[in-house]
Amino acid sequence: MSGFDIDKARANFPSLKSGFIFGDNAGGSQAAQGVIDRIVDYLSNTNVQLGADYSVSVESTRRAMVEAPAEVAKLFNASPDEIVFSHSSTMNLENVARALEHDIQPGDEFIVTTEHEANAGPWKKLAARRGAVVKVWKASPTREDNPYSLSLKTAELLPLITDKTRIVAFTATSNILGSVVPVREVVAALRADAEAKGARKVEVSVDCVAYAPHRLIDVRGWDVDFAVFSFYKVYGPHISALYIRAATLEASMQPLVHHFLKLDHTAYKIQPGGPGYELAYATTGAVDYLLSLTPARDLNKTFEAIAAHEQTLVQPLLEFLTAPAQRERGVRVVGEETAGLTRVPTISFVVVGQRPIRSRDVVRVFDEKGGIGIRYGHFYAYSLVNELSPKVDIDDGVVRISLVHYNTVEEVNRIIEILKEVFAA
Ligand SMILES: Cc1ncc(COP(=O)(O)O)c(C=O)c1O
Questions:
Q1: What is the 407 CA–ligand 1 centroid distance (Å)?
Q2: Paired sense of beta strands 83-86 and 240-244, if any
Q3: Which domains can be identified in the chain, with CATH numbers?
Q4: In terms of domain of life, where is this protein from (predicted)?
Q5: 175 touches ligand 1 (CB under 6 Å)
Q6: Does residue 171 have its Cβ closer than 6 Å to ligand 1?
Q7: Do residues 9 and 405 touch, judged by C-beta distance below 8 A?
Q8: Is 118 in the pocket of ligand 1 (CB under 6 A)?
Q9: Are residues 314 and 339 in contact, defined by beta-carbon separation less than 8 angstroms?
Q10: 307 phi and psi, to 5 degrees?
Q11: Distance from Cα 114 to the centre of ligand 1, integer Å
């Protein structure tokens, strides 16, 4: 694979040496050695409170407050002072909604998706507090022969926009459906439509949690106000990074921090309490790892190489799951069925029809064989799974196999081998 050396990539992950096949990466990826080293280094050498004048504190402050946002900003194409950290993306988005509360009027309209609740729940709760109206942009089937072949379509978003639209919140990639939403095009279309309809102010919030391990975010090119992802799914520690557009921070957001902290003009006003500083520092290890994947240390090239390699994983798995024998057996992909650069290797399916198999029973076979980790459920995209039609038991959900660039074609072949046994039963 030009530009991507999988053995070199895998050598960065101590956990991969065991040979265990990690197939639940959309739940959490493995951590690169540079991330682990930085956590140990921070705790060993600079684990003091930030902001004091003695030398060790100066260094801890530099690591967590200067180096970390500067490096992480590269993954957003943002400026470092537009980045804040929190424990999770769920918390970060809840903070965004809280900070906007004073600027929401009764009758304002929020458009959300049925994806992961993290970028829907805070808006629904805010709407309930402020008398705003929630509309839902639903994913719809792409193929006539598979009602679960869902994806978000721009044409189905635009009719929801009115002069009252205030917030549009969606995922750049679903943690179940796995397709890459063309964020730039969606945002351009929705902004043009909102302007034509006379909307007062529209802010766009994009959940990039299931996108960031696979593609490079570009908040400037996308023209969005908020974007968020979780480093524990991007080869890093358990911490989340949030982008807030500087102009939006000024124009729309009230501070969430203690009243005596004078942080009004920085994104830190939306960060109540400190994140784990050793974790904030360790994010620089994840960025460094990604940069190291291409000789030019160019993130665009890194993610191009990742996307190209990941296609070699998506293709055989989707080809197998959608082959006539599997279709006949009742296997239905939940998400788009075709491989291509608009598809990441997060692949979900159910087995329905005359001889259905519960998702938990598919996963049980993998667990019994051992040496491999995949999972079933709704993965917090509760509304999406709950509204699948024909209905799927919400507690059983879908089987999800979620791979990343350190997975190999051999691993995919092993997964297919086990699936063949499961479907033959
Ligand atoms: C698409 C998506 N959004 C948001 C989240 C929530 O992230 P966090 O666990 O950091 O709150 C997840 C986690 O699974 C996710 O997959």
A1: 21
A2: antiparallel
A3: 6-30+307-424 (3.90.1150.10), 44-290 (3.40.640.10)
A4: Eukaryota
A5: yes
A6: yes
A7: yes
A8: yes
A9: yes
A10: -60, -40
A11: 13
